[in-house]
């Protein structure tokens, strides 16, 4: 920070501190105050001899138009010291009209503008040669539009004739009068807002009937806001339900496709179940057509020579007994042959 102050030839304190108030004595210029021409001022002056530019005004409801005018005044010359004169409430109410801000508020607003080097309180309405000499003013900066006031068509006419006037450009679209017009036009809105913020009807100069009307309108607006909030929440809820239902339907479709695919893979024309069924059917049919034979190592059953064959069964018992069904074609032929032999014995 110290190196920066040493390298900067014109250290400015207005960026970190408010502008100073002018004192009753004359300026603190160390060099003798000599008359400067605009050409000399634009060419540049020594460090200890800045060009002293004066800009005055009411500066009520300080806005960007004021700040731009002061910026132009500050940058008129390479080495400029800007003095801003602010008229008091008494002079302003007398020659122009009532102000929104008090003179103290207007002084403080100007002190915190970065382009201002010095504030002159209770500035005169008309600039006299004595005033210019007292404050060692080189040039006066203002817009070039004739300013008619105090019985004069242009209060800066004699300044222009003396070659001390330097014009600045106005910022279109914004002025103190425009801001006041907006407030008057939207008076009901601002009155309702301030009532809602805790101001009384007396402070706002609002009648009893208008106060009740404004409060009723505020209640209606709050109800509308609640309804709007509920609508927004319901829309959000419906959107979430639709999103969830869409996800569920999508998952259900995926699961259903998977289930159908598995079902067709199992029970389809070429499915696994058909193959299993055909294999089991083939095994059962082959088992039914070709049953297992007796083991080949079992000994054959022979009749003993000592024993005589058993006598045949009585005919009555033969007719009553049911023959066991043959298990195979061979068994069926054997039973038929045995029946024929029995018939022969009976005969």
TrEMBL record:
What the protein does? Catalyzes the key rate-limiting step in the CDP-choline pathway for phosphatidylcholine biosynthesis.
Q: Which SUPFAM superfamilies match?
A: Nucleotidylyl transferase
Query: What does the record give as its pathway?
Result: Phospholipid metabolism; phosphatidylcholine biosynthesis; phosphatidylcholine from phosphocholine: step 1/2; Lipid metabolism
Give the record's family classification.
Belongs to the cytidylyltransferase family.
InterPro entries, A to Z: CCT, Cyt_trans-like, Pcy1-like, Rossmann-like_a/b/a_fold
Q: What catalytic activity does the UniProt entry give for this protein?
A: phosphocholine + CTP + H(+) = CDP-choline + diphosphate
Q: What class of enzyme is it?
A: transferase
Region span, Disordered: 289-347
Which GO-annotated molecular functions does the record name? Answer: choline-phosphate cytidylyltransferase activity; phosphatidylcholine binding
The protein depicted here goes by the name: choline-phosphate cytidylyltransferase
Provide the taxonomic classification.
Answer: Eukaryota, Metazoa, Chordata, Craniata, Vertebrata
Enzyme Commission code: 2.7.7.15
Per the database record, which ranges form the Cytidyltransferase-like domain? 54-182
**Which CDD domains does the record cross-reference, listed alphabetically?**
CCT (cd02174)
Keywords of the record: Lipid biosynthesis, Lipid metabolism, Nucleotidyltransferase, Phospholipid biosynthesis, Phospholipid metabolism, Transferase
A Pfam family found in this protein is: CTP_transf_like
């Amino acid at each position: 920070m110290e190196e920066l102050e040493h390298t900067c030839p014109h250290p400015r304190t207005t960026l970190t501190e408010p502008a100073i108030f002018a004192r009753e004595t004359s300026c603190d210029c160390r060099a003798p105050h000599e008359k400067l021409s605009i050409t000399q001022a634009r060419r540049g002056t020594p460090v200890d001899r800045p060009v002293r530019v004066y800009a005055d005004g009411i500066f009520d409801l300080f806005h960007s138009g004021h700040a731009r005018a002061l910026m132009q005044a500050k940058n008129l010359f390479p080495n400029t010291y800007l003095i801003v004169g602010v008229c008091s409430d008494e002079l302003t109410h007398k020659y122009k009209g009532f102000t929104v801000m008090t003179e103290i508020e207007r002084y403080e607003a100007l002190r915190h503008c970065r382009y201002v080097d010095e504030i002159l309180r209770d500035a005169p309405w008309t600039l006299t040669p004595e005033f210019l000499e007292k404050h060692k003013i080189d040039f006066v900066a203002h817009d070039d539009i004739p300013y008619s006031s105090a019985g004069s068509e242009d209060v800066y006419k004699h300044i222009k004739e003396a070659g001390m006037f330097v014009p600045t450009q106005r910022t279109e679209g914004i002025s103190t009068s425009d801001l006041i017009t907006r407030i008057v036009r939207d008076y009901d809105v601002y009155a309702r807002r301030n009532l809602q913020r805790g101001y009384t009807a007396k402070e706002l100069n609002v009648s009893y009937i208008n106060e009740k009307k404004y409060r009723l309108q505020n209640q209606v607006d709050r109800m509308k806001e609640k309804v709007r909030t509920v609508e927004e929440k319901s829309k959000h809820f419906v959107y979430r339900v639709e999103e969830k239902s869409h996800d569920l339907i999508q998952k259900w479709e995926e699961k259903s496709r998977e289930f159908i695919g598995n079902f067709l893979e199992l029970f389809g024309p070429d499915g696994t179940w058909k193959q299993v069924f055909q294999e089991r059917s083939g095994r059962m049919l082959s088992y039914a057509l070709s049953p297992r034979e007796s083991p080949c190592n079992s000994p054959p059953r022979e009749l003993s020579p000592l024993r005589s064959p058993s006598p045949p069964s009585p005919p009555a018992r033969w007719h009553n007994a049911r023959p066991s069904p043959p298990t195979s074609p061979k068994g069926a032929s054997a039973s038929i042959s045995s029946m024929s032999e029995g018939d022969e014995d009976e005969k």
